[in-house]
Amino acid sequence: MLYLIRMLLLGMHFLLAGVLGLLIGLCRPFNPDNSRIFARLYAWPIGGLLRLRVKAEVGPLFDQPPGCVIIANHQSNFDLFVLGNVVPPRTVCIGKKSLGWIPFFGQIFWLGGNILVDRSNAYHARQALHSTTQIVRHNNTSIWIFPEGTRNPESQLLDFKSGAFRLAIEAGVPIVPVCVSRYAQRMRLNRWNSGNVIIRSLAPIATSGLGKDDIPALIQQCREQMQRCIDTMENELQSA
Q1: Taking the domain 2-239, which CATH number applies?
Q2: Looking at residue 123, what is its pLDDT?
Q3: Domain residue extents for the chain
Q4: What pLDDT, in 10s, does the model give residues 155-166?
Q5: Which helix (H) or strand (E) holds 91?
Q6: How far is Cα 207 from Cα 169, in angstroms, rounded to an integer?
Protein backbone atom coordinates (compact mmCIF):
# COMPACT_ATOMS: atom_id res chain seq x y z
CA MET A 1 0.00 0.00 0.00
CA LEU A 2 2.80 2.44 0.88
CA TYR A 3 4.43 1.73 -2.47
CA LEU A 4 1.22 2.57 -4.36
CA ILE A 5 0.68 5.77 -2.36
CA ARG A 6 4.25 6.88 -2.99
CA MET A 7 4.07 6.17 -6.71
CA LEU A 8 0.78 8.06 -6.98
CA LEU A 9 2.16 11.09 -5.14
CA LEU A 10 5.40 10.89 -7.10
CA GLY A 11 3.44 10.86 -10.36
CA MET A 12 1.49 13.93 -9.26
CA HIS A 13 4.72 15.68 -8.29
CA PHE A 14 6.29 14.77 -11.64
CA LEU A 15 3.41 16.47 -13.46
CA LEU A 16 3.40 19.52 -11.16
CA ALA A 17 7.17 19.96 -11.47
CA GLY A 18 6.79 19.64 -15.23
CA VAL A 19 4.16 22.38 -15.39
CA LEU A 20 6.20 24.74 -13.18
CA GLY A 21 9.32 23.96 -15.15
CA LEU A 22 7.53 24.63 -18.42
CA LEU A 23 6.41 28.05 -17.22
CA ILE A 24 9.97 28.89 -16.14
CA GLY A 25 11.36 27.59 -19.41
CA LEU A 26 8.95 29.66 -21.49
CA CYS A 27 9.91 32.79 -19.54
CA ARG A 28 13.66 32.21 -20.03
CA PRO A 29 14.08 29.65 -22.84
CA PHE A 30 17.43 27.89 -23.28
CA ASN A 31 19.01 29.63 -20.30
CA PRO A 32 21.90 27.30 -19.34
CA ASP A 33 20.94 27.53 -15.67
CA ASN A 34 17.41 26.28 -16.32
CA SER A 35 18.46 22.66 -15.97
CA ARG A 36 19.72 23.22 -12.42
CA ILE A 37 16.39 24.82 -11.45
CA PHE A 38 14.39 22.03 -13.09
CA ALA A 39 16.55 19.41 -11.37
CA ARG A 40 15.85 21.01 -8.00
CA LEU A 41 12.10 20.93 -8.71
CA TYR A 42 12.17 17.22 -9.43
CA ALA A 43 14.47 16.39 -6.51
CA TRP A 44 12.39 18.24 -3.92
CA PRO A 45 10.43 15.19 -2.60
CA ILE A 46 13.44 12.87 -2.28
CA GLY A 47 13.58 13.11 1.52
CA GLY A 48 9.96 13.64 2.54
CA LEU A 49 8.17 11.48 -0.01
CA LEU A 50 10.65 8.80 -1.04
CA ARG A 51 12.44 8.79 2.34
CA LEU A 52 15.80 8.19 0.70
CA ARG A 53 18.54 9.59 2.92
CA VAL A 54 21.07 11.24 0.62
CA LYS A 55 24.56 12.16 1.79
CA ALA A 56 26.18 14.45 -0.78
CA GLU A 57 29.95 14.97 -0.72
CA VAL A 58 30.40 16.99 -3.89
CA GLY A 59 32.84 19.74 -2.99
CA PRO A 60 35.12 19.16 -6.03
CA LEU A 61 32.08 19.38 -8.32
CA PHE A 62 30.97 22.78 -7.03
CA ASP A 63 34.52 24.09 -6.69
CA GLN A 64 35.08 23.49 -10.41
CA PRO A 65 33.96 26.55 -12.46
CA PRO A 66 31.38 25.98 -15.22
CA GLY A 67 32.97 24.70 -18.38
CA CYS A 68 33.74 21.03 -17.76
CA VAL A 69 32.44 17.56 -18.60
CA ILE A 70 30.68 15.82 -15.69
CA ILE A 71 30.37 12.04 -15.87
CA ALA A 72 28.21 9.95 -13.54
CA ASN A 73 26.97 6.38 -13.21
CA HIS A 74 23.34 5.86 -14.23
CA GLN A 75 21.20 3.39 -12.27
CA SER A 76 17.50 4.02 -12.77
CA ASN A 77 14.85 6.58 -13.65
CA PHE A 78 14.99 7.65 -10.00
CA ASP A 79 18.36 9.27 -10.75
CA LEU A 80 16.31 12.33 -11.73
CA PHE A 81 15.25 12.72 -8.10
CA VAL A 82 18.46 11.45 -6.44
CA LEU A 83 20.90 13.60 -8.41
CA GLY A 84 18.74 16.70 -8.81
CA ASN A 85 20.14 18.50 -5.77
CA VAL A 86 23.78 18.18 -6.88
CA VAL A 87 23.47 19.59 -10.40
CA PRO A 88 25.80 22.63 -10.39
CA PRO A 89 25.04 26.02 -12.01
CA ARG A 90 25.16 26.35 -15.81
CA THR A 91 25.03 22.64 -16.48
CA VAL A 92 23.14 20.96 -19.30
CA CYS A 93 22.77 17.30 -20.14
CA ILE A 94 23.00 15.08 -23.21
CA GLY A 95 20.04 12.75 -23.62
CA LYS A 96 18.50 10.54 -26.26
CA LYS A 97 16.05 12.12 -28.70
CA SER A 98 13.10 10.06 -27.43
CA LEU A 99 13.16 12.03 -24.14
CA GLY A 100 11.70 14.96 -26.06
CA TRP A 101 8.39 13.12 -26.44
CA ILE A 102 7.74 12.73 -22.69
CA PRO A 103 4.90 15.17 -21.79
CA PHE A 104 6.16 18.26 -19.91
CA PHE A 105 9.53 16.67 -19.08
CA GLY A 106 10.59 16.50 -22.71
CA GLN A 107 9.62 20.10 -23.34
CA ILE A 108 11.45 21.48 -20.31
CA PHE A 109 14.45 19.29 -21.13
CA TRP A 110 14.59 21.07 -24.48
CA LEU A 111 13.91 24.53 -23.01
CA GLY A 112 16.69 23.93 -20.50
CA GLY A 113 19.22 24.00 -23.32
CA ASN A 114 19.92 20.29 -23.00
CA ILE A 115 21.16 18.36 -26.03
CA LEU A 116 18.90 15.75 -27.65
CA VAL A 117 20.82 13.19 -29.72
CA ASP A 118 19.47 10.73 -32.28
CA ARG A 119 21.79 7.83 -31.53
CA SER A 120 20.53 5.86 -34.54
CA ASN A 121 21.82 8.57 -36.89
CA ALA A 122 25.62 8.68 -36.88
CA TYR A 123 25.79 11.99 -38.75
CA HIS A 124 23.35 13.67 -36.36
CA ALA A 125 25.27 12.29 -33.36
CA ARG A 126 28.56 13.73 -34.71
CA GLN A 127 26.95 17.11 -35.34
CA ALA A 128 25.49 17.13 -31.82
CA LEU A 129 28.94 16.33 -30.39
CA HIS A 130 30.47 19.20 -32.37
CA SER A 131 27.76 21.63 -31.19
CA THR A 132 28.20 20.47 -27.60
CA THR A 133 31.95 21.01 -27.82
CA GLN A 134 31.36 24.61 -28.87
CA ILE A 135 28.91 25.13 -25.99
CA VAL A 136 31.45 23.91 -23.43
CA ARG A 137 34.35 25.81 -24.98
CA HIS A 138 32.68 29.19 -25.53
CA ASN A 139 29.52 29.42 -23.40
CA ASN A 140 30.92 28.87 -19.89
CA THR A 141 28.64 25.83 -19.59
CA SER A 142 29.23 22.31 -18.28
CA ILE A 143 27.87 19.11 -19.81
CA TRP A 144 26.54 16.22 -17.70
CA ILE A 145 26.90 12.80 -19.37
CA PHE A 146 26.22 9.20 -18.31
CA PRO A 147 29.10 7.44 -20.09
CA GLU A 148 27.65 3.95 -19.64
CA GLY A 149 24.96 4.99 -22.10
CA THR A 150 22.16 3.11 -20.34
CA ARG A 151 20.77 2.33 -16.89
CA ASN A 152 22.89 -0.09 -14.88
CA PRO A 153 21.97 -1.02 -11.28
CA GLU A 154 24.63 -3.75 -11.05
CA SER A 155 27.76 -3.63 -8.91
CA GLN A 156 30.19 -3.26 -11.83
CA LEU A 157 30.19 -0.29 -14.18
CA LEU A 158 29.56 -1.04 -17.84
CA ASP A 159 32.14 -0.14 -20.47
CA PHE A 160 32.19 3.61 -21.00
CA LYS A 161 31.36 5.07 -24.38
CA SER A 162 33.94 7.46 -25.79
CA GLY A 163 31.74 10.52 -26.51
CA ALA A 164 32.22 12.32 -23.18
CA PHE A 165 35.99 11.88 -23.29
CA ARG A 166 36.29 12.89 -26.93
CA LEU A 167 34.24 16.00 -26.12
CA ALA A 168 36.40 16.93 -23.12
CA ILE A 169 39.63 16.57 -25.10
CA GLU A 170 38.34 18.55 -28.08
CA ALA A 171 37.06 21.32 -25.81
CA GLY A 172 40.22 21.22 -23.67
CA VAL A 173 38.25 21.07 -20.40
CA PRO A 174 38.55 18.86 -17.30
CA ILE A 175 36.40 15.85 -16.51
CA VAL A 176 34.69 15.70 -13.09
CA PRO A 177 33.52 12.18 -12.10
CA VAL A 178 30.42 11.93 -9.90
CA CYS A 179 29.79 8.58 -8.20
CA VAL A 180 26.51 7.38 -6.71
CA SER A 181 26.27 4.39 -4.38
CA ARG A 182 24.18 1.46 -5.59
CA TYR A 183 20.90 2.69 -4.14
CA ALA A 184 18.77 1.05 -6.85
CA GLN A 185 19.68 -2.40 -5.51
CA ARG A 186 18.50 -1.57 -1.99
CA MET A 187 15.69 0.94 -2.47
CA ARG A 188 12.43 -0.38 -1.00
CA LEU A 189 9.53 2.00 -1.58
CA ASN A 190 7.17 -0.24 0.38
CA ARG A 191 9.09 0.59 3.57
CA TRP A 192 8.95 3.87 5.49
CA ASN A 193 12.69 4.47 5.07
CA SER A 194 13.59 3.52 1.51
CA GLY A 195 17.35 3.44 1.94
CA ASN A 196 20.58 5.42 2.07
CA VAL A 197 22.52 7.00 -0.77
CA ILE A 198 25.98 8.54 -0.95
CA ILE A 199 26.92 10.87 -3.79
CA ARG A 200 30.60 11.68 -4.04
CA SER A 201 32.47 13.73 -6.64
CA LEU A 202 36.12 13.12 -7.40
CA ALA A 203 38.88 15.56 -8.22
CA PRO A 204 38.80 17.00 -11.75
CA ILE A 205 40.88 15.14 -14.33
CA ALA A 206 42.73 17.45 -16.71
CA THR A 207 42.58 16.78 -20.46
CA SER A 208 44.75 19.63 -21.75
CA GLY A 209 47.48 18.33 -24.03
CA LEU A 210 45.68 15.04 -24.70
CA GLY A 211 44.69 13.81 -28.15
CA LYS A 212 42.49 11.12 -29.70
CA ASP A 213 45.12 8.44 -29.04
CA ASP A 214 44.83 9.14 -25.31
CA ILE A 215 41.07 8.45 -25.16
CA PRO A 216 41.27 4.71 -24.24
CA ALA A 217 43.66 5.39 -21.34
CA LEU A 218 41.53 8.32 -20.16
CA ILE A 219 38.41 6.16 -20.22
CA GLN A 220 40.15 3.44 -18.24
CA GLN A 221 41.45 5.95 -15.68
CA CYS A 222 38.01 7.48 -15.09
CA ARG A 223 36.21 4.14 -14.98
CA GLU A 224 38.68 2.65 -12.50
CA GLN A 225 38.52 5.70 -10.22
CA MET A 226 34.72 5.66 -10.25
CA GLN A 227 34.52 1.91 -9.63
CA ARG A 228 36.85 2.20 -6.62
CA CYS A 229 34.82 5.09 -5.24
CA ILE A 230 31.52 3.23 -5.65
CA ASP A 231 32.97 0.12 -3.98
CA THR A 232 34.26 2.27 -1.09
CA MET A 233 30.86 3.91 -0.60
CA GLU A 234 29.16 0.52 -0.60
CA ASN A 235 31.54 -0.69 2.12
CA GLU A 236 30.82 2.46 4.15
CA LEU A 237 27.06 1.88 3.91
CA GLN A 238 27.34 -1.78 4.87
CA SER A 239 29.48 -0.99 7.92
CA ALA A 240 27.30 1.92 9.11
Answers
A1: 3.40.1130
A2: 66
A3: 2-239
A4: 999 999 999 999
A5: strand 91-96
A6: 6
